[in-house]
UniProtKB/TrEMBL annotation:
The lineage of its organism: Eukaryota, Metazoa, Chordata, Craniata, Vertebrata. The gene is FLVCR2. This is Feline leukemia virus subgroup C cellular receptor family member 2. The keyword Oxidoreductase does not apply. InterPro entries: FLVCR1-2_SLC49-like (IPR049680), MFS (IPR011701), MFS_dom (IPR020846), MFS_trans_sf (IPR036259). It catalyses: ethanolamine(in) = ethanolamine(out); choline(out) = choline(in); heme b(in) = heme b(out). Residues 1-45, 489-510 are annotated as: Disordered. The chain crosses the membrane at residues 65-85, 105-125, 132-149, 161-179, 191-212, 232-252, 290-308, 328-347, 359-375, 381-401, 421-441, 447-467. Its main location: membrane. Choline uniporter that specifically mediates choline uptake at the blood-brain-barrier. Responsible for the majority of choline uptake across the blood-brain-barrier from the circulation into the brain. Choline, a nutrient critical for brain development, is a precursor of phosphatidylcholine, as well as betaine. Also mediates transport of ethanolamine. Choline and ethanolamine transport is not coupled with proton transport and is exclusively driven by the choline gradient across the plasma membrane. Also acts as a heme b transporter. Signal peptide: none annotated. One of its GO terms (cellular component) is plasma membrane. Residues 67-472 form the Major facilitator superfamily (MFS) profile domain. It holds the Pfam family MFS_1.
């Protein structure tokens, strides 16, 4: 039985018989959430008393796809600039005359910047809206890219680090948006797929970051020629970032005129004076299932960040002179992960099995990491391509699962807030794992470094299994379907509930 069917039966058990349905019984059903159930409420809020919302008009707009793909392009540009140094770290170490840790910090600065800035950016997202966040973020991305165009000189490492820092600020305005954008614009039967596509934008940038720098910046001895190639790469990324920034200003919108789902319509009905940002944060911190997800998500994605940052070092250690193939292996990881993300998103929209899918993908990420760790030193590059692709399929495919599961566990809290806390955890573990694995690789080799990551993936798997699944957003949509039951309706008509009202006559495409 799917998670959706379980929800339907759970509600029908509470209703009893459709003919006995009354406002009193409906209030009893809607009262199954109590703020003390998960210990996630510190004070009375708009969620503390059951409310009966009328069925509201919903509509899907064709331009939702333009919003999604424009955001994905912006995220792609930023993701590319994250890895354009580390994938050819040996070249930049020689060019700037720096050590490996300094190069690693050009990637880890993205993680470090995120941690102190995420809370104020989440506050801005709740108070200023998604459009302002996306515009400001794309502006930072553009400015940082142009700063780096002047740093193709061996004496300009400090300035290139500053440019990378400005680009890292843009990341804070990106990572929490996919689930928010999906909820604001997309119907319930496509919301997880939309979130997956939003995540794919950043993954596409990482894929390009693995592939393009080794091609644009060959490992040549002549420093003047090397500076010329580096400058070309910086100007290309700056031109793309500028074009996307202009498009964002012209095209990107906050939200559609009519909500896409009944759950989103209910969220819109909450008055601003009923919502407290700090109270929302405190409720989330006391939501035990969500906090388990925060830590387990951070462990998984932190491992991915460490692998991505240190990939060049791991490949070069066993396959000297294979900088280009190191980039191709990274590309394989991300492309496979993009496929995994999309498949997982579609699967969630079809089945609504959030916890089951998340747990299975987590276990397979651990298995993939173990296989990758023990086959890296076999001396066959094709084996590395295969095992890295399998690892990427599950580890990167996990990203949208975490976002969507978090939205279900925390509804009706802001999607940006829950996503922001997930990403903050990922950045913290990303820094810890990158530094620790780098030190382990230097002292004991790549196998020990990868086993180190496997241990924490095992911990994350156990924590995922302990999460209590409470699909609150699905229940909100189910509530509105229950309201449409008349005395002549059959029990089976409610049990055959669809997860959204997208098919209703008034919800036509425009």
């Amino acid at each position: 039985m799917s998670s959706q069917d379980e929800l339907s039966h759970e509600w029908m058990d509470s209703l009893g018989n459709a003919e006995d349905f009354s406002p009193r019984k409906e209030t009893e059903v809607l009262g199954d959430y109590k703020p003390g159930d998960d210990g996630d409420a510190l004070e009375p809020s708009f969620r503390d008393s059951p409310q009966l919302f009328p069925l509201m008009e919903t509509k899907l707009y064709k331009r939702r796809w333009a919003m999604l793909f424009l955001f994905s392009a912006y995220s792609t540009s930023n993701g590319f600039m994250w890895l354009q140094y580390s994938i050819i770290s040996n070249i930049f170490m020689r060019f700037y005359g720096i050590d490996s840790l300094a190069i690693d910090w050009l990637s880890m600065i993205y993680c470090l910047t995120y941690i102190p800035l995420i809370l104020p950016v989440m506050w801005l997202l709740d108070n200023r809206g998604m459009r302002d966040i996306v515009v400001v973020g794309s502006a930072f991305n553009c400015v940082g890219a142009w700063i780096k165009t002047s740093t193709a000189d061996p004496d300009m490492f400090a300035m290139t680090f500053f440019g990378q820092f400005v680009c890292s600020v843009a990341t804070v305005y990106i990572l929490g948006i996919p689930s928010r954008l999906a909820s604001l614009w997309f119907g319930q039967q496509e919301v997880s797929t939309a979130c997956s596509i939003g995540v794919l934008g950043n993954q596409m940038g990482i894929a390009i970051g693995f592939l393009v720098p080794p091609i644009l910046v060959p490992n040549v001895d002549d420093m003047a020629e090397l500076a010329y190639h580096i400058r070309i790469m910086f100007y290309i990324s700056a031109g793309v970032a500028t074009f996307i920034f202009v498009l964002v200003i012209i095209v990107f919108q906050e939200r559609p005129e009519l909500p896409p789902t009944q759950a989103q319509a209910q969220s819109r009905s909450i008055q601003p004076d009923e919502y407290s940002y700090m109270a929302s944060i405190l409720r989330l911190l006391r939501n035990k299932p969500f906090m388990l997800l925060v830590v387990s998500y951070g462990l998984n994605v932190g491992c991915f960040y460490a692998i991505s940052t240190l990939l060049n070092r791991m490949i070069i250690e066993h396959y000297p002179g294979e900088e280009v193939n190191a980039g191709r292996i990274g590309l394989t990881i991300v492309i496979a992960g993009m496929a995994g993300s999309l498949i997982c998103g579609i699967w969630l929209d079809k089945t609504k099995t959030y916890k089951q899918t998340t747990l299975v993908v987590y276990i397979l990420s651990l298995v993939g990491m173990l296989i990758y760790a023990f086959t890296l030193n076999l001396g066959h590059l094709w084996v590395v391509f295969v095992t890295a692709g399998a690892l990427g399929f599950f580890m990167t495919g996990y990203l949208p699962l975490g976002f969507e599961f978090a939205v279900e566990l925390t509804y009706p809290e802001s999607e940006g807030t829950s996503s922001g806390l997930l990403n903050c955890s990922a950045q913290i573990f990303g820094i810890i794992f990158t530094i620790s694995q780098g030190k382990i690789i230097d002292k004991w080799g790549t196998l020990a470094g990868n086993i180190f990551l496997c241990f924490f993936l095992l911990i994350g798997t156990v924590m995922t299994g302990l999460i209590k699944s409470d699909l609150r957003r699905q229940k909100a949509n189910l509530q509105t379907e229950v309201q449409t039951v008349s005395p002549t309706d059959s029990i089976s008509s409610v049990q055959d509930y669809g997860a959204t009202s997208c098919g209703r006559p008034w919800q036509q495409q425009s």
